[in-house]
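Exercise: predict the fold of this chain.
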Amino acid sequence: MKTFLKILVAIIIVGALCFGIYCILPETSQMYVKGNIQYRTNETAKTQVDKIKKTKIPGTEKTFGAGLEGLCKSCAWYYEEEANGDWMVTFYGSKATMDLTTAGMDQMYTEQPMKVTFTVRNNSQVDIVMEIKGDILSTDQAKTAAYEKIANAAK
């Protein structure tokens, strides 16, 4: 009985340590863990993430999945449903390098975290919000330049 108790206590301690480490990780790292678990265990999430990955980048024949995964060193996709029936897929990437100065912008991002949120309304309209290093690319010029860089990163 003592051996069983020791093993149980050891398992609880290891679990608490893992949870503690997870809690202090940055958002991108937490989403890498959550996104990979969700993709493997939730069929709805897998289906919706795959739909977004296959979405074509505006103005190109390349997909967001190939482009974003090629642009970042490590990445994760996370699916969420909203109460009103809309759903969103968020891409979290690390070490994205994007030079927007070639498109007349003044931003140059080197190995920065990237977050792209795809919000799907009424199962048809897709709103895309791109964020690099906390900067939201809100102008059409910035979005077009970013789409071009993402498409160029597609393998």
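Check your answer against the key: The CA atoms of residues 76 and 123 lie 22 Å apart.
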